[in-house]
Amino acid sequence: MGNSSSKITFFQWLRPLIESGQKTITIRDESESHYEPGSIVSVHTLETDEKFCDIEILSVEALRFEDINDTHARQELLSLSELKALLKDIYPGEELLYVISYRLVEEPR
Ligand SMILES: CC(=O)Nc1ccn([C@@H]2O[C@H](CO)[C@@H](O)[C@H]2O)c(=O)n1
Hints:
Elements: E1 7-10, H1 15-19, E2 25-28, E3 40-45, E4 51-64, H2 70-76, H3 80-90, E5 96-105
Parallel strand pairs: 1-3
Antiparallel strand pairs: 2-5, 3-4, 4-5
Bound molecules: N4-Acetylcytidine (A1EHT).
């Protein structure tokens, strides 16, 4: 790879949830719907661009905002109202989003 699809950024406050393997999806807009299932993606903080883990992309599926439900919220470790408020804030007026499922790639030690 070595192109833009090998990196993803998350808000720093989500880092503990991601590196512990608890948070297993992220919901993004079309500009981030290009990740390929099976590829390994380097995870960085949005604020400082610090790399903190790798994830393997499992799937990328279109998701209408109105179809976001409790299962998505559970996979995000957020309440449904928190998740919807967050997504409205990040992607105002966007009705079509993409749910990216991933798993944490454990570091050998
Ligand atoms: C450019 C950039 O980094 N954008 C985003 C967009 C979303 N998110 C998080 O993904 C989940 C949305 O399903 C929620 O947990 C959000 O807080 C994020 O961390 N960073």
